[in-house]
Design goal:
Elements: E1 5-16, E2 19-30, E3 34-38, H1 45-52, E4 60-65, E5 68-69, H2 74-80, E6 81-84, H3 96-107, H4 113-119, H5 135-147, E7 153-157, H6 165-180, E8 184-189, H7 192-198, E9 201-206, E10 209-215, H8 216-222, H9 227-235
Parallel strand pairs: 3-8, 3-9, 6-7, 7-8
Antiparallel strand pairs: 1-2, 1-4, 4-5, 9-10
Bound molecules: adenosine-5'-triphosphate and magnesium ion (MG).
């Protein structure tokens, strides 16, 4: 096997105000994989994604995207990633199309904005100001913005937040088609059913510590009737009572 590593963290640690939030985290994400980060509220999922995106400086260790250090080489890393982390921010008074256009200008690339909007199920609202968007529409627009420059790596923090079941299915199909085009996707979630259905590999973190990395198909086979209990046990920090 000679799969290229798209994202890697080495001894990655982060403290806020002297309190450890991530402890020596080591993960490896292969190119073209959909990788899930599972953890309860406060486990460290967003912090991990921010460190990978180069939005935060690690206290120790590092995150790497195609071998480049996310913090020290963040201008280069930025070119290779698309991200939707926490609530997406937009220029509220501007339209969806204008927001995407500004992003493309910033990234120094061109793309078909109308196509990107229909890709995420927003075909007819390109000219509407974002201030008039619903939560789900904002989330869809955030996803459009994160993929429009065709990044190699996509970082999605709770991507199905605020989406209805139809949109959730559409997004899952979109993620799988992006993966089939070779994109590597890291997504965080605490929604077990979504992670089970979407990701190929999962890392469970609890209190900033890696509890388990597993292949989702293997997990499903091994824990056919009690996968939810098993994963909840892991999310609690590894204590599992069958
Ligand atoms: N800027 C910050 N300053 C201080 N503490 C922070 C900061 N950002 C996060 N934390 C703390 O780090 C821990 C992990 O937060 P993080 O947002 O990464 O968790 P999460 O897994 O994304 O949670 P959620 O599921 O609620 O989004 C929490 O205890 C949080 O309070
Ligand atoms: Mg979070």
């Amino acid at each position: 096997m000679d799969t290229q590593i798209a994202v890697q963290t080495k001894n990655l640690s982060k403290e806020f105000d002297g309190k450890a939030v991530l402890n020596r985290l080591e993960i490896k994400v292969a190119q073209g994989e959909i990788y899930g980060i599972l953890g309860v509220n406060g486990a460290g999922k967003t912090t991990l994604l921010k460190l990978i995106a180069g939005l935060l400086e690690p206290t120790e260790g590092g995150a790497y995207v195609f071998g480049e250090n996310s913090w020290k080489q963040r201008n280069k890393v930025l070119q290779n990633i698309g991200s939707l982390i926490e609530v997406p921010y937009f220029y509220e008074h501007l339209s969806a199309s204008q927001n995407l256009s500004i992003h493309l200008e910033y990234m120094g690339v061109s793309a078909d904005i109308d196509k990107a909007l229909s890709h995420v199920g927003l075909p007819d609202v390109g000219n509407k100001p974002v201030s008039k968007f619903s939560l789900g529409m904002r989330q869809r627009l955030g996803i459009a913005r994160s993929i429009i420059h065709r990044p190699k790596v996509l970082l999605l923090d709770e991507p199905i937040n605020g989406l209805d079941p139809v949109a959730i299915r559409e997004m899952r199909e979109l993620f799988i088609s992006l993966k089939n085009e070779g994109m590597t996707i890291l997504l965080s979630s605490h929604i077990l059913s979504e992670v089970e259905q979407t990701v190929e590999r999962v890392v469970v973190i609890a209190n900033g510590t890696l509890i388990e990395v597993a292949n989702m198909e293997e997990l499903k086979n091994t824990h056919q009737n009690n996968l939810e209990n098993y994963l909840i046990g892991k999310m609690r920090g590894g204590k599992y009572n069958d």
